[in-house]
Every structure is written in structure tokens, then in C-alpha cells.
Design brief:
By secondary structure, the protein is of the alpha+beta class. Strands 5, 6, 7, 8, 10, 11, 12, 13 and 14 form a nine-stranded antiparallel sheet that branches. Strands 1-2 form a two-stranded antiparallel ribbon. Strand 3 and strand 4 form a beta hairpin. The longest helix has 23 residues. The radius of gyration is 25 Å and the shape is globular.
Length: about 260
């Protein structure tokens, strides 16, 4: 009798070990899915036995092993643009949509943060960013028909591709807007910044701005020292700031991949 019990518990222990082994090691029973309708910084690993519908890209029955989401994407999203020249205030997604992670955006020199826009006066993280960057100057800019004279003309002028010889820092404290930048192959990337999103463009990067279809954004503008807002419309490749940007973020990347 005692021997039978020992055999029983021995078999039970072996079965438990085998079950745990199958749970911990994902072999051909799992698939990795990263294509969703919204940007997602991590990866999902789901059971093949779960329901995954390719059409609407929704997982309804899954075994979730890992999900790491970039919280900045709640207020800042980036995607490659289509070639349609209609209303600049539309999202201009490709079909299918092609999102870009904010870490990939940083490889172009574009840095981003998610901050507390409701308490920017006392936000310690904002204070640290300003101190580390030497951003001593600060003001606010509201872009909307009610606050900006010659609104339509101004919005069109903001959308001219240009660069600055200093960093451009924008912190959206209300509303939303689009900032477009070029990747290393000259393709346009649209960066949608909403309330709480802060973005820094390096000196020398070609970019442009437009409001979205809501026609309203209130942004904090930061600057190291006295503000200089001079835009240099493309082409201005001869400027030292442009040459330095190309050396640091374009040529180095191409050389590294060669």
C-alpha cells in the first residue's frame, strides 16, 4: 500500500513538472504578433488556440506572456505618411498603417517625454529637463483661429519644410498637432503630439508643423538662452547646423549598416 502511494505521488510529481515545462517554454504552440491598429512598443505572444482575427486585428482569447507598452505613446505617436497632397490637417496614414516606435524616432535625434500637463508649473520632471538642457527661456504659443491673426496663412507657412540652427522644443499643454520630419531616406514621418507630450527636434533637422483637424494647440516653447525663431526653408544644406545633423544622425547610421 505504501509503495503504491509512493508510485502515485512520483507520477504526480512528474506530470506537474511536464506541465510547468510546457507553460514556461513556448515552442511551436505559440506565435508572435506585433501588427495592431494602434502603435505598440512591445510584443504579444499568444496561443495558437486563441482567436486572432487578421481582418480587424483583435485578440479575443489569448495567453499573454509579455506586453511592454511605451507610455509615451498615449500622448505621442509616429507613423509614415502617404503621398496624398490633400488637406495637411488629416492624419495621412499609409494603407496599411505603418507606425514607428519613439525609440526609432530617437535614432533620428528626436527626443520625447510624457509629462503632467495639468501641473507643469510644479512638475519636477519638467524642471529637471529644463535644467539639464539649459532651457532658461519659456513662453506659450496658441495656434487657433481665435488667437492667431491671419490664421490660415500662418498655418500654411508653418507647413513649409525648414530647419533651425538651434533645438526646437515644444511641450503640448492643451490640444494637439502634427510635427513632420524626414527619415534617413527622405520619407516623411508624422509625429502626433497631444496634451502631455513634449518633443525636442535637434538643430539642423528638416521638419514642418501643422494643426490637426481640431485646429487648436497650446504649446510651451523652451529655448537655451535668448529665443531665435528664424526658419531656414529647404534647401539650406550648407549651414553648419545641417552638416552637423547629417554627420551625427544620417552618415553615421549608413556607415554603421555598411
Amino acid at each position: 500500500m505504501m509503495r503504491d502511494r509512493q508510485l502515485f505521488f512520483g507520477l504526480l510529481l512528474i506530470l506537474t513538472f511536464v506541465s510547468l515545462h510546457k507553460l514556461c517554454y513556448c515552442d511551436d504552440q505559440t506565435v508572435s504578433c506585433e501588427s495592431f491598429d494602434e502603435p505598440f512598443g512591445g510584443s504579444w505572444i499568444v496561443s495558437k488556440n486563441g482567436d486572432y482575427e487578421e481582418g480587424n486585428k483583435r485578440i479575443t482569447k489569448t495567453t499573454l506572456v509579455e506586453a511592454l507598452k511605451d507610455e509615451r505613446e498615449d500622448v505621442i505617436q509616429a507613423w509614415y505618411m502617404d503621398d496624398n497632397q490633400e488637406d495637411q490637417r488629416l492624419p495621412h496614414h499609409k494603407d496599411p498603417k505603418e507606425f514607428l516606435s519613439l525609440d526609432k524616432l530617437a535614432e533620428l535625434g528626436v527626443l520625447s517625454w510624457r509629462l503632467d500637463a495639468d501641473h507643469y508649473e510644479t512638475d519636477e520632471e519638467l524642471k529637471k529637463i529644463r535644467e539639464s538642457g539649459g532651457y532658461s527661456y519659456m513662453d506659450f504659443c496658441e495656434v487657433c483661429p481665435e488667437k492667431l491673426q491671419n490664421y490660415e496663412e500662418k498655418v500654411k507657412s508653418f507647413f513649409e519644410e525648414h530647419l533651425h540652427t538651434d533645438e526646437e522644443i515644444r511641450y503640448c499643454v492643451a490640444g494637439s498637432g502634427y510635427f513632420d520630419v524626414r527619415d534617413r531616406n527622405e520619407a516623411w514621418i508624422r509625429v502626433w503630439v497631444k496634451k502631455g507630450g513634449m518633443i525636442v527636434f535637434p538643430a539642423g533637422i528638416y521638419h514642418r508643423f501643422t494643426v490637426d483637424s481640431d485646429n487648436y494647440i497650446k504649446a510651451m516653447r523652451l529655448f537655451a538662452g535668448g529665443p531665435v525663431w528664424t526658419p531656414y526653408n529647404r534647401p539650406h544644406d550648407h549651414l553648419p547646423a545641417r552638416k552637423e545633423y547629417v554627420d551625427n544622425f544620417v552618415n553615421k547610421a549608413f556607415n554603421a549598416s555598411a
